[in-house]
Amino acid sequence: MASKPVTVGDLIHRVASSCLSNRLPCNYTIRDSVDSDLDDDEDDPFADAVSSSDKCRRSPSSAEVVEEEGDEDKKLKIWEEGGQEDRKAAAAAKGAERARDAEALMAEVFDAVSGVRRAYAALQGAHCPWDPDKMRAADAAVVAELRHLARLRDRFRRSAAAGHIPRPNPSAPPLREAVAPYEAALDDLQRQLQSKQAEVDGLKEKLAAATARRNGRHHHPSSKHQSGGAPTVELFTSIAEQARAATRAFAGHLLHLMRAAGVDVTAATRSLTKIPVSSPQLAKHAMEAHVTRSLLGGFEHESFYLDGSLSSLLDPAAFRRERYTQFRDMRGMEPSELLGVLPTCAFGRYAAAKFASLLPPRVEEAILGDGEHRRAVNGGAHPRTPFYGEFLRAAKAVWMLHLLAFALEPPPSHFDAGRGAEFHPEYMESVAGAPPRAGMVVGFAVAPGFRLGNGAVVRARVYLVPRGGRP
């Protein structure tokens, strides 16, 4: 079959169709808008030429320009994101450091609270059996642990103010409000402890006085037998110790009544004794000094200056025998029994006079609630009350010492240690018990001393203070 002849028009049509259907050089493309009947370009003579034109260099298109700008933005964003990450890392490190500080502080707080519990347990353990030394050590340990807690509280506040530790949640209850009930309970326990301590001290003094009286009664027959009915220096020394124990027990009883009545012991003792008392422990010695001074006032006279009798000058030997007989007869008697039979005897007059000087009306009303004791004593009677019974036991102990002193030949002389005097261990003993430090002087005298005829000395009891200091 003969092929169709190709004319010039057909060639022009093919070239035009090929240009419209293929991309122009330099990447410029025109979409086909003219329909072509020649979809197959296998016979296109310009196919190779058109495909090779793609290899020429092209200018940047708008899409490539946008792409390059996007790359720059990405680079800037990377830098910004890098700075933010550094800041986040620094903030995280700072927060971790704060958390470590808070954890360390809380660990110290827990340790301090545990220390308070241990110290308080030791304080309770010192009560039974009663051990004053352990009590003082445990009390000091409790105070030290509480001070440690206070320092931790101040440290927390400073750290929170400086921003080192996050501030507590405002909705949470403040620490002081949380601790307040425990502080109130601790104060109540301390008051109870002081009251119990005063009660125990009073009972110990009563026990010492009762033991001394029992030992004295047991010792009396043998001493009488050994001495042939004559008083001895050793007996006087023993009775002097019993008198001191009795006055110390009554002083402790007075302090216990003051605490029970709600009276400020330190201020009341300072007002009553005229001694600059600054602590409850010092009040105990100051009250003992007041009781001793009141009961022994006029000790150098044969009747405590209750009358103008001078029987010792008329017949000294008979007077001494009479005094020693009174001492032996009265030694085994209860003072209330004696005064129940003879309320106006010499000892009754002595007890009435000393009670009036020992307790001023305002003190009696403060601790006893009324003045019934004073009215009864002024009326010539002696009340049968526990309080007055305690007073009579102390008064009897001093009266017995006075009888024995004037039964001796020569009678012992008593001496006091004045305030500011140098401490002399051969004439004085400290109420603290421990050997005094160098440079200590007498703050006030608690009990007088006695010098006996054979040269023996019953040492005075004194409260010592540093030189230039005050009690």
How would you sum up this structure, described in words?
With 471 residues, the protein is mainly alpha-helical. It has four domains: 8-55, no CATH class; 90-168; 196-407, no CATH class; 412-471, Nucleotide Exchange Factor Grpe, Chain A, domain 2 (Roll). The protein has 15 helices and six strands. The strands form two sheets. The protein has a three-stranded antiparallel β-sheet, with no helix packed on it. Strands 2-6-3 form a three-stranded mixed β-sheet. Strand 4 (449-451) and strand 5 form a beta hairpin. Helix 3 runs antiparallel to helix 4 (132-162). The protein is elongated and about 185 Å long. The termini are far apart. Mean pLDDT is 77; it is low at 24-59 and 218-228.
What is the tally of helical segments? 15
Percent of residues in β-strands: 5-15%
Structural class of the secondary structure composition?
mainly alpha
H/E series, N to C?
A: HHHHHHHHHHHHHHHEEEEEE
| Total number of beta strands | 6
Shape: elongated
Helix content: 55-70%
Low-confidence sequence ranges: 24-59, 218-228
Radius of gyration: 53 Å
> For the residues shown, what is the average pLDDT?
77
Q: Describe the sheet with the most strands.
A: 3 strands, antiparallel
The order of strands across the largest sheet is 1-4-5
Question: What oligomeric state do these chains adopt?
Answer: single chain
Total domain count: 4
Distance between the termini: 151 Å
